[in-house]
Structures are given as structure tokens and as C-alpha cells.
Amino acid sequence: MSTERPPNRLAREASPYLQQHARNPVDWFPWGEEALAKAKREDKPILLSIGYSACHWCHVMEKESFEDDATAKAMNDGFVSIKVDREERPDLDQIYQLVVQLMGRSGGWPLTVFLTPEQKPFFGGTYFPPVEKYGMPSFTKILGAVREAFHATRGEIDAQADELTKAIASVGERETSGRAGYRLAPDLIAKASDRLAARFDDEHGGFGQRPKFPSTTALDVMLRRGALDHDGRSLSRVQLAVDHMRAGGVYDQLGGGFHRYSTDEAWLVPHFEKMLYDNALLLRLYVDAWRVTREERSARTAREIAAYVAREMTATDGGFFATQDADSEGEEGKFFVWDASEIRQALAGDDEASDLAVARWGVTDDGNFEHTGKTVLHGAKTASELAVRFGIAPSRVEAALERARVKLFDAREKRVKPFRDEKVLASWNGLMMGALADAGGALGDATMIAWAARAFAFVESRLLEKRGGELRVKRLALGGVAKGDGFLDDYAFVADAALDLFEATGDTHYVAVARALGDTIESRFWEDTERAFYFSPNDGEALIHRTKDPFDHAVPSGTSIACKVLLRLGAVVDAKYATHATAQLERLAAAAVENPFGFGQTIGVLDRLVRGSVDVVIAGGRDDARAVALAAEAFRTYLPNRNIVWLSNTDARAACAAIADGKDAGADGSPRAYVCRGRTCSLPVASVEELAKLLA
Fold this sequence. Notes:
Strand 19, helix 24 and strand 20 form a beta-alpha-beta unit. With 696 residues, the chain is an alpha+beta fold. The longest helix is centred in the N-terminal third of the chain and has 23 residues, at 154-176. A five-stranded mixed beta sheet has the order 1-3-2-4-5, with helices on both faces. Strands 13, 14, 15 and 16 form a four-stranded antiparallel beta sheet that branches. Strands 20-19-21-22 form a four-stranded mixed beta sheet, sandwiched between helices. Among the domains are: 9-176, Glutaredoxin (3-Layer(aba) Sandwich), CATH 3.40.30; 188-421, no CATH class; 612-696, Glutaredoxin (3-Layer(aba) Sandwich), CATH 3.40.30. The protein contains 27 helices and 22 strands.
């Protein structure tokens, strides 16, 4: 980004992504009335460009096109150019991503869509190069052709825009309208898992070829199949996937945490951006994998993800930042890659650690990253293999590798770090807070739970507010400013995290917050006529289409998590909360089983609806070590449809009225645990051993 040019309107915006474009020669507008009115007044097409701060190809297109004076002049002369941060306005991104998909192309970022002054799309794509290459026309050629067509064939353009707008409205309805007579049954996990297995990569783990994404919700479906239905093939596939991801370059071998995705099928070379949501979803996956298999490497990976988030992605006042960039000093991956000379220099004086590090992390003279001679570190050899190769004890190998990791990490810290987008997004924070609370309970790590509670306090103080008797959620906080009305995922993910924190702490304040958010979800996002949840609130900005949010994308769908929250509240607080969730899930069931890649999280919530939840109720004081031990056993057990309920005092019984009746401590006040499945509850048990038998 040049600092010599005068700033454009984006300089007044808080978004780091928009700020990155603030000195482009393009006459950028943020989305808003000023830009939309100008387009109508001057009868110009709108050039809508959507991206995010950590997006590598967004940076490439900026450098090639938006910083080019000639390209900027073509944009300024012919268009009203609007730049949008997709993390701030996912509603706009949802609508206009469909344009590209309806045109038979893959969506993604940067998203480039041309609109009429009435906001109706008539042409779109993603990245366009400055000259014709990659089988794509040049961006300048696109600009000229679109401008000419808009003015010369306006009737055809308007007709195409009308057709695309109608198609956008019909896509979600067509795919989620439900199937008359479809019967929900316990085999839905098996059916969905079989469809997923057809695309599973049995060599490297994961799904498909390149590029390869973690697909955590799909792996969760297979883990449920393996653990709940005792399917060994599904379990082994999930273990293969988590092991290969952990060993690959897609995982940061020195600092922990996962990059966004792998450019190859073997998880070796990533696109290097790190997203808060990926690490939240993967933290849950690795903890659940550990619950099922007790493989220590899965638990270790979970701890390292949490440590990465605490170190790199946490604000001083507790909220979690959104992303870390792929680029450093203008080069993708520069911060993360190594050659052998850099390894040996960082480990000078420790030849054993140096030799083992080079072998362990696959560092070669040729490298593996874009013909640079640099290597993306990956688990090329195990400690056991190195022990045999070098003729030393495995414990000595492990000690040397840990010395090497610490020194290499310290050396890397001296490099110029990738840019960090310090937005605190309500939805993504909800994912991470819930994952940390769950992981802390499973692994017996009170620090993780404290991190989650501290972040929740930040979100509650900065992003939640009472308005008109309802609890409302702001979309994000940045630089002391909270802005944007929350969408369905903001409400649902924060509410789900609140219930996770109640399970981990027994503090009924979290139940009260979750209940208030559940009430607002039902009042602002549910539509009785459609029997469905919408992504934007009923009093939100009027766009060309009000989208629903049934599909998983990079994060689980807001609809699926809203249904999960309401089922949890229905089981614990008041049965009324389950009504709308049940109706929505029944509507989605047929589509979900047929397309588990698009509905992985919904499959999991449908499983909760069909099997019923497993409710573990602890009656006894929260500060009683015996009660804590009972809860710890529930946390360690793989119970994907669980509710853990603390009945520690009168307030807790009132907050959890739907499940509290008849659940009492022993006559002497000693803690008791009850396990309820459906409408049937066990007799109370007092020991961890008895509880373990009930949960098995």
C-alpha cells in the first residue's frame, strides 16, 4: 500500500481490511447510502469487491489492480466502487457469493461482483489478473466489457440482473424446503457418514484432493458414527485425518495452531493465514478425538492450539482477535518457512538438536515451497524413527527436539510477523470461548476455562446490550468501538458458549445470558410463515434478498447452532425452547442427509434431536471436590449430545427448572449424579466409578 497517495474514504473506516485499501487510487466507498445514492444519481454500475484482511489473493489483486493508476481510472470513470469486509458484513457476502456459484464458478475471495444501481447483480467472479492468464480474462478487459454492456444493452443487463436476483432467492429455498413424509431415524448418522466416506482420502486423511480444508463438521459426523455406532472404520479414518493434519505443514510445528488450508492433498504446504474460527473448530475436534481414543497426541495438539490462541490471538482485555495474515513483508509464508542454514544457525552449538530438527521437520536443500529452497516445517519423521536412525533413545530424541523447537520459535519471533486483524467478532469469539470451556473441562485445565470466561466477560461488556427489553448483540469490537447489528451466528455462537461455560463452571449467570439470547433469536430471526430462521434480523437493513443460513461454510451455519442452543435450553430450562428448533430441523433433515458436506453441523444437531440428549446432573455444592470429580468424569467421556447441569443451590434449581425436579444430593448433603436419557433418569450415584458405568 503506497503511503504517498492521498487517502480515500476508506481511511475513515475502522476495518483493517478497508484500511489496507485506504490509499489506493481507486475512489472506494464503504457500503452505505452515499455510494448507493451516487450509483442511482449517476446511473453507474456498482463494482462490489468483498474480501478480508488475511486473504492472500485479496492482497495480490490489490497490488496488481487496485494500486495501478490506469486500472483505478477505469474503475473511477465507469463505476461506483464499493469495498466490503466480509467479516463485518457476512449478509452481503452470502448474497453475492451465490452470483458466482450460479454462474457455474467456485466462490471465494476476493469476490468481484457488478451490480445495477438497484443492487441487483448481473456479472461476477473472484480474482481477476491484470493481464490474461490462468485461463481468465484481464481485469481491465472485464471492466471495459462490463461498462460497455451496461450502457449499450441496458435492457438485457436489467433482465439478467432480475433473473439472477430471483435465482438467489430460490437457491436456499429449493435446497432446504423439506421433503414431505421424510422420516427421521437413528440411522441418519450412518447414512450421512457413508456419503462422506465416498470422498474420504484414505491415504492422507480428509476429503478430496487439492486444495484441502479441515472439514471439521464432516469429521465430527464420522467421529459420531465411529463412537456411538461402534464403527471402527469411521474411527480409524478420523484418527488418520487428525494425525496427518497435525503432522503436516498446515499445522504450525513451532508455535501451534492451524493455517487455513493445504494447497496439496498431503497437508504439506498451506496457505498461511490463521483464522480464529478454524482453530476453535479444530480444538473441539482434537479434544473429542482424545475423548474417544485417549491418544495423547490429540490432547497435546489441543493444548498447543489453546496456547497459540492465548499467546497470539488474545487482546489484553480478553477478547479474541479474528485473523493472522498469510503474508509477511509482502511475501506469502515468509515468516514460517526455513532453509537448512537458518536451522543450523539458530541451533548453533547443539549439533544433535540441529541434526534431529532438520530430519524431523523435513528440511532439504531443495525445499518444498514454491521453488524458493525454503521448507514448510512438517512431521517428516517420528521420534521413534529418528531414534532408530540416529541410534539414540527416544526420550533423548524428544528432549533434543523440544530444545530445537524452543530455540527455533525464539529465532522466528525476531522476524517481521504477519499482520493481525484485531477485530473481535462476536460469532467467532463464541466458537473459541465454547471450545476452550469444553477443552478445559475435558483435559482438567482450569486455565483454559479462565481464558474462556475472561473473553466472555469482554463480549458481555462490549458487545451485549439490553434494548427494548431484549438482549442484543453487536457484530464486532475494534479499537474501542463496538459496531454492527449482530446476525444469527453472533447470537447463536455466543449463546452456545454461555451454555458451555455454565457446564464448566456451574455459574447460572451463563444460563441467564443464554436464555436471553435464545429469546432474541426467536423474536428477531424466526419467521412463522417460513418455519425457519433467517440470517439477518427482521428489522435489519433491507437488501435485495433476506437470506437464510442453513449451510455450513468455513464456520457452522448459524441455523444449526441456533437449533442446538434451543434444544439445550429446552432440555435444561424450559421445554418451549425446543419447539421452533425441532420444526426447523425437520425441514432440513432430508437435505442434510443427502448433502452432509453442506450440513455437517446440522447432522450433529439432528442426531441430538433423534437420540435425545444425555443429561448429566450433579446435585451438590460446586466447591465440593466430590462433585467436581463427578463432573470431570462427564467431561472426559465422549457425549456429543450432552448437557452437564450443576444443581449447587436454589438459584441453579430455578435456572434449570426443566431438569431439576427430583435431583437431590444425599441425605447427608453428599453430591449425587444422575444420568438422564430422553425422559428416563438413572438412580443417583455417588462415585466416579458408578457414573462411568452409567455413561459407558
